[in-house]
């Protein structure tokens, strides 16, 4: 075999190996560490908008438990994932009365619910009154390994008020980066 053909064949094999390694690494990162997700619907307005594209950190909850106000993605069904905000943690009692959140009887501020007084807004920050006992499951406190989640658009959100508390093993991960649209790009904190 001429030397030039052999070098060409080796070069193709090197490229093929590099591509296979790159695809393997991308697969591992996507499966176990980070995944993209697109917001579908208005339930997280004003924080997240329909069509926003996010990166979900799938690894962080292997190191620690979810914290209050984390924005998480979870399996709502075998075919659908939801994005909501963690409000209640295991062992807590949650209640909303007169649009005020109470955890174990103490008022908790929700700074992400910003009101634009006098302005027309496509979301509702008002939260109808509820207690944990009135939600599916009728719990007195959130069970171990579960969280209570709510959408930020309280008038248009299918959340724990409808589907009950969420088992932690159904949580895919925490949103870590809003990357599209570019003018709204930001690290997702609390």
Automatic annotation (TrEMBL):
Topology with respect to the bilayer: Single-pass type II membrane protein
Annotated GO molecular function terms are: serine-type endopeptidase activity; signal peptidase activity
Question: Where in the cell does this protein reside?
Answer: Cell membrane; Membrane
User: Which residue intervals define the domain Peptidase S26 in the entry?
Assistant: 12-180
Q: Which GO terms describe its biological process?
A: signal peptide processing
Enzyme Commission (EC) number: 3.4.21.89
KW Protease (keyword) present: yes
Keywords assigned by UniProt, alphabetized: Hydrolase, Membrane, Protease, Transmembrane, Transmembrane helix
- What InterPro entries has UniProt attached to this entry? LexA/Signal_pep-like_sf, Pept_S26A_signal_pept_1, Pept_S26A_signal_pept_1_CS, Pept_S26A_signal_pept_1_Lys-AS, Peptidase_S26
Where primarily located? membrane
Family according to the record: Belongs to the peptidase S26 family.
UniProt protein name: Signal peptidase I
Read off the lineage from the record. Answer: Bacteria, Bacillati, Bacillota, Bacilli, Bacillales
Gene designation: sipT_1
